[in-house]
Amino acid sequence: VTNSTNDSDELVVQLFRPAYGFHTHCYALTNPAANRLLSELPVTGPIDVWLADNQWFGMNVYCASVANEGWKNTGRNLVHQDRSKQNQSDITQSGRT
Question: What pLDDT was estimated at residue 40?
């Protein structure tokens, strides 16, 4: 993965299985996983908490972070949410409804 601010910097991405998930910023789903989640609607509460509280409905789940960065080198967020622009989105944040 390449850092978008400096194409010469290579990022090392660390994958791990979460024990619990909250404050997530992005998801990548396969079609079968999307169909499974659709069958579990409605979502109650913030989606990240709903998924974790339901043990991700038995699906294989992985988290990604930038390795060897962040707090005590435990990993930095791979995706960042710019909260200063939250009122400029047409997508309602589930934790705010």
Answer: 95
